[in-house]
């Protein structure tokens, strides 16, 4: 592998949509940094798979809900690869189904800390490395939003939907802020995608329950989201910044 080979960091890259982005990143020629929060085995397995495929990868632990972890994670990528060209703010959580009048402050603060503040702090670290203003050579950032940002998720998790609405606004603002610094910033809004996140939120049957409401009558796959992310990271999207791409099967 050449040191000139571009480097991609994906938060929550060890499972679900993040893992699909890492795999497609390998195919696109990136060296890949796979972030995870606690499931080291899943991250190590993906890194081994990428290496078996002839790629270069590292697993980097770090909870995006903690600033010290975020700073350490970017430092680990610096030490492993010495550059950063592409960054995906993918790590995100849902909580159990609840109405707004049932939500306590601990739930709301955790949701916003991980999904919103974590994305800001990670982008801060990425911009410090990529921006020509800071001596970097440019790069691309993709934020993973959600169709929930436009639907609101009533009766299910309005807090999550609002956190993704914040990601949409963040994407537009940051894109314009760094447009002259060699960095493009875009977002992808997945619809219902077949990953473990639904079971993590206590709804393992969520895809089945929603299927008839989906225009295509099926959930999307993590690979279908990853394709859109890799496009936005690529030079093929060189005039695209501040865009929010729905990958939601028409929902
Ligand atoms: P997932 O299958 O639950 O995967 C979660 C990944 O994020 C794992 O790698 C996990 O690491 C990591 N993670 C969780 N909390 C973290 C934290 N605090 N810090 C760092 N990493 C953390 O999730 P997914 O469905 O792929 O979702 C990925 C993104 O897409 C999220 O932002 C989600 O909101 C968004 N999205 C998903 C859907 C969908 O239907 N699946 C729809 C719209 C948007 P560990 O394995 O160590 O826990």
TrEMBL record:
SUPFAM superfamilies: NAD(P)-binding Rossmann-fold domains. The keyword Amino-acid biosynthesis does not apply. Gene3D superfamilies: NAD(P)-binding Rossmann-like Domain (3.40.50.720). One of its GO terms (molecular function) is oxidoreductase activity, acting on CH-OH group of donors. Keywords: Oxidoreductase. Pfam families: adh_short_C2 (PF13561). Belongs to the short-chain dehydrogenases/reductases (SDR) family. NCBIfam families: PRK06123.1 (NF004777). This is NAD(P)-dependent dehydrogenase, short-chain alcohol dehydrogenase family.
């Amino acid at each position: 592998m050449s040191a000139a080979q571009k480097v991609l960091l994906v938060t929550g890259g060890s499972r679900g949509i993040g893992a699909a982005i890492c795999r497609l990143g390998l195919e696109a020629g990136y060296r890949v940094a796979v972030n995870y929060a606690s499931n080291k085995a899943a991250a190590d397995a993906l890194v081994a798979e990428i290496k078996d495929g002839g790629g270069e990868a590292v697993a980097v632990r770090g909870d995006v809900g903690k600033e010290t972890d975020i700073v350490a994670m970017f430092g680990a990528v610096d030490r492993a690869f010495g550059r950063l060209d592409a960054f995906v703010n993918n790590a995100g959580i849902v909580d159990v189904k609840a109405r707004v009048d049932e939500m306590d402050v601990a739930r709301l603060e955790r949701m916003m800390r991980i999904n919103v503040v974590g994305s800001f702090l990670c982008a801060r670290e990425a911009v410090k490395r990529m921006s020509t203003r800071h001596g970097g050579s440019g790069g691309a950032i993709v934020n993973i939003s959600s169709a929930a940002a436009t639907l609101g998720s009533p009766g299910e998790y309005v807090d999550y939907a609002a956190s993704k609405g914040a990601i949409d606004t963040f994407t537009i603002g940051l894109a314009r802020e760094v447009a002259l610094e060699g960095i493009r910033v875009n977002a992808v809004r997945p619809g219902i995608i077949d990953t473990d996140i639904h079971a993590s939120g206590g709804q393992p049957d969520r895809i089945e329950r929603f299927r008839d409401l989906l225009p295509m009558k099926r959930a999307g796959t993590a690979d279908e989201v990853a394709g859109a992310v890799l496009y936005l990271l690529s030079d093929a999207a060189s005039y695209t910044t501040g865009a929010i791409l729905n990958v939601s099967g028409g929902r």
